[in-house]
Each structure stands twice: as C-alpha cells, then as structure tokens.
Design a protein that fits this description.
The chain has 288 residues and is α/β, with parallel strands linked by helices. The protein is built from nine helices and ten strands. Strands 1, 2, 3, 4, 5, 6, 7, 8, 9 and 10 form a ten-stranded mixed beta sheet that branches.
Length: 288
C-alpha cells in the first residue's frame, strides 16, 4: 500500500485531521504537558503514545507514576495500573495519600487515623476506576490478559511498574525479554489507541554514575526501549538533594518525538508523596 501525501485527497484529509479535538490527558506537571505537542496538543500524553520513565531505586519513579495516575483520574479518565512489586494494599495507601494530600503515615497500618481516612474517602468521591491486579503478576502473559480485561471495561490508559520485573532469569534473559515486551506493548497501544506509561531501570553503568545526568541510552533494554518511546523521562540521581521530607531533583525529558527536550525542576513532598514543578523564581534552589 502507498499514498501520495501531495494529492488533493490527502491534503483535504490532513486539514480535517489537524482540526479534530485534542484528546490528550494531563500529567500533573505543567511544563511536561506543554512540550507534548502534535496529538498531545500541549495538554499531556495522547492515545497511542508509549512513554518511558526511568530512575534509580528509591528516587521516586513509582511515586511519579502514581502522581501521573492521580492527574489522569482528576481528568476523569480511568487507569489500569500494574505494579509488579507492590500489593494492592500498598499501592492503594500511596495513591490515597497523594491523591487527597493526606499524610501517608496517617493511612499506614499501626498509625491509621480514622478522621484522616474519612476526609480521604470524601476526597476520592466520584473518581473514575483505578484498576489494579488482584494478585501480583509475574509473567508477560498475565500482564497481557490483565490489560485486555481492563480494556474490555473501557480503560485506555495503562501504567506498568516496572518493565524488568515482568520476567525472571539472568541479566541477558531479562534484557532480551524486555526488548520483546516493549515491541509488543507499544504495537498493542498504537493499535488500540491506548496511552502506555512504562517504568524502567537504568543499566548498571548509568545507575552507578552519580556524577553525570543520565541519558536515554542508559535505559536497561537498550536501543529498542529508547527507539520505541514517544518520550523518555529520566529522574536525575546526579542532581538529587533531600532534606527531611523534601527532595529536589530534575525530570529530564531526554527524548521527545512530539516537541522539545528539556529538564524540569521538581520537588517531592514525602509526607504525602506528591510531586510539584518548581516555579521559575525557585529554580535557583535546585541542585545543579
């Protein structure tokens, strides 16, 4: 099959397509929304996009994904969330805290506060579903089946936390399996017009390098993960500073198929697990 993009028919179809309503979903980070152009329309991630978020252990990639999920819910869109390392109870505690700006300590076992819980429940009233697996998934087929079940219920936004836990084995086996999964998952997302956000580790050399800002070439999974992603978002462990419950770092958009690449200063409040983008007059406070 072929088509002439200079033909009158194509030109007419192009003009109509460019004027269709934008259906992207906000991320909760204003600058990140703004640089998502094309089908994103400057408003967030679009259907059919495959986004990779990478970070070192303990530097907030799961919490960032949950903050994005919270923004999606606030937009009125349901989410299929696949955590391969947290139970539904653990994931729920984190989501409830950040979605309602409740101190996470007041929702945890051993410190549970009924008054805070009542307020949190009120803050979640009317939210669309956030689907999680009943049990921890451990195989690629179980992830596929779960996505299909959520899709049948109308879900079009998926978060997978994180890629390398889908398979077991030595490093080479996990590496090859990651490449296969990325290829298949991206193709499924494009075919079904689903937004897919995948979390990833860095490779060993990038993960252990605290002197340089990570690059998308350092993703565990190699070129296929970078090439398949519409955006590569990297949490910079070389510029991470934490004081008590507040941490500052940079979210590096290292690849963007739909707009510019840049670094976004973000702040973590670990009391509620919420993330905020710094204002321009605050950027001087961020580690350089």
């Amino acid at each position: 099959m072929k088509q002439d993009i200079l033909s009158l028919d194509f030109l007419d179809q192009y003009a109509q397509k460019q004027q269709e309503e934008i259906v992207s979903v906000p991320t909760g980070i204003p600058t990140l929304n703004r640089i998502c152009r094309d089908d994103g329309g400057g408003g967030g991630f679009a259907p059919g996009w495959f986004i990779t978020i990478a970070g070192n252990p303990g530097h907030g990639k799961s919490a960032l994904a949950l903050n994005i999920a919270s923004a999606v819910l606030n937009h009125g869109t349901s989410v299929g969330y696949i955590s391969l390392e947290m139970s539904p109870q653990q994931l729920a505690t984190r989501l409830y805290a950040l979605h309602t700006h409740t101190r996470i300590a007041r929702l945890e076992r051993g410190h549970f506060q009924q008054d805070d819980w009542v307020e949190a429940v009120a803050g979640m009233e009317g939210a669309p579903p956030l689907w999680v697996p009943t049990n921890l998934l451990s195989t690629w087929q179980s992830v596929v089946d779960y996505c299909k079940a959520c899709y049948a219920d109308g879900c079009r936004y998926f978060i997978l936390d994180y890629l390398q836990l889908v398979n077991t084995g030595d490093e080479d086996q996990i590496y090859r399996a990651t490449q296969k999964i990325v290829t298949e998952l991206r193709a499924w997302g494009v075919e079904h017009q689903c937004t897919i956000v995948c979390l990833s580790q860095f490779n060993r050399s990038t993960s252990s390098n605290y002197d340089s800002t990570p690059r998308s070439q350092g993703l565990f999974g190699g070129m296929i993960l970078e090439a398949s992603s519409d955006l590569c978002l990297l949490l910079d462990h070389s510029r991470y500073e934490r004081t008590d419950n507040i941490a500052r770092t940079w979210l590096c958009c290292a690849k963007n198929r739909h707009g510019p690449t840049l670094d976004i200063p973000i702040l973590w409040d670990y009391r509620t697990l919420t993330v905020h983008e710094a204002s321009r007059d605050e950027e001087g406070m961020w580690p350089q």
